[in-house]
Amino acid sequence: MLRTAALKAALPKRYKQAARQAYLRASAFVNAGSTVVCPCCGHTFRKFAHFFGRPDQCPQCGSLMRHRAVFLFLRDALGVPKGAAILDVGPAPALTTWLASLEDVEYLPVDLDSPQATLHADVTGLPISDDSFDVILCLHVLEHVPDDRKAMSELFRVLRPGGKAVIQVPVKPIPETIEDATVTTPVARERRFGQYDHVRICGLDYGLRLEAAGFDVTEEDYVERLDAASRIRFGLRTGEPFYLCVKPARAR
Asked: What are phi and psi of 59, to 5 degrees?
């Protein structure tokens, strides 16, 4: 496992993406059917493609469970008003296509090197003016960022007062977040944090970090609102909530 971590880290991202796309194309053929549907792209399958041991990824658009859950939350619960400015940190194709298609919406995907991004920048130092966005998405990004508190501060800064940020990290059922700045190699990170490109294990206290950045924070497990048939149909399960973070009208 540890040797694999080093190989993954050394392999250029474009090769990993190409290999994954080839796997998804094969999975789309093998899993043709109509048992599950991806709400992000509308395609149906017998089952989703495996991702980390679970049938979790849409073979067509690449959505994972977290993308489908946030898509439904944005579309059916939170809503994206016309004229909204949306910042998407670490964009995923499944959400990018939909968000970019919304009428009268200013959409800015940002990442260090993703081809999905139109702005290539570090989340700990965004070249963006204060109070610029109404909605921010940041899904499974902060567990990769060494200075996540600086990143949270930047997200707070560029969000408009009253704006909402949907932030998600993989939280483990431990009281406190575990991190160690001396762990820097892919192999050591795989051993310590469970994944070669993670820099911490996020604990149940992670919402407090977001509150310390100035946000009003609510933990939201949107999948719990859906009935059992919808969960099966969309390939969703409870227990992977996200944080709905609001910048107070009078920011602290």
From this structure: -65, -20
Residue 16's contacts (CB-CB under 8 Å, 6 or more residues apart) are: 8
Identify whether 28 is part of a domain: no
Is the model's pLDDT at 1 over the cut of 60? no
Parent domain of 182? 64-225+238-246
Provide φ and ψ at 27, rounded to 5°. Answer: -65, -35
Could you report the per-residue pLDDT of 187-197, keeping only the tens digit for each?
Answer: 999 999 999 99
What is the crossing angle of helices 93-101 and 65-72, to 10°?
A: 20
Which amino acid, residue 1?
Answer: M
Q: Give the C-alpha separation, 65 to 37, whole Å.
A: 12
Domain CATH code at residue 135: 3.40.50.150
Establish if 52 belongs to a structural domain.
no
SS3 content of the chain, % helix, strand, coil (to 5): 35, 25, 40
pLDDT in tens, 65-123: 999 999 999 999 998 888 999 999 999 999 999 999 998 999 999 999 888 899 999 99
Residue 73 lies in a domain: yes
CA pair distance 159, 137, nearest whole angstrom: 11
Mean pLDDT of 230-234: 97
- Phi, then psi, of 155 in degrees rounded to 5: -60, -40
Q: Has this prediction a pTM greater than 0.85?
A: yes
Domain count, the chain: 1
pLDDT in tens, 69-78: 999 999 999 9
